[in-house]
What does this fold into?
Amino acid sequence: MRYEYGNGRLSRFLIHHTLCRAGALENGLLLPVSVAMKREERLYLETLQSFSRPAREFWDVRWIDQCQYSFEFTGDPSIYRFWDATSAVRFTLEMAKRALEVELREETIFLENYDRVVRTVNEVYDVRGSDLANLVMMCLTNNGKVSNNRRKQYQYSVQPEVFDYIEQVTQMLLDQQAQQRPQDENDQ
It folds into this structure.
């Protein structure tokens, strides 16, 4: 049995709550901090362990039987009240910065591309909304290709030429953006 405690969700809520209270985000807005943290999972785990590993030294954990453990705290409670959060704060700020400067920009580009491809395909073919949505998302995340597995999965609901058209429109869009990137970098 696996237990989900929600510590990650709670920490992400606290990050957003703190940013909103500090005036860095308007209430209700979200920053894709989770995406940035997921991309830096090794560093995320190292940061968490910088506190948890030393704290574990003060716990005597014994296995009783299947899914049953006894926990005895042998340290002073002050380790939880007065801990050095410098590395956690530094990591969180770096992930918020990355979310703002990289992840949010990439997500915006992805959504704009998604809308363009769906709109273009809809002008030519009549494809059920969820099928088209799924295929376009898969194609965008797969560098402009609809995999053979997806073609088989949707073969009875999507015409074969639609797969090719989705790929053609997506690849054309991605190629245009790749050509614009060097110009955009030179402008900066």
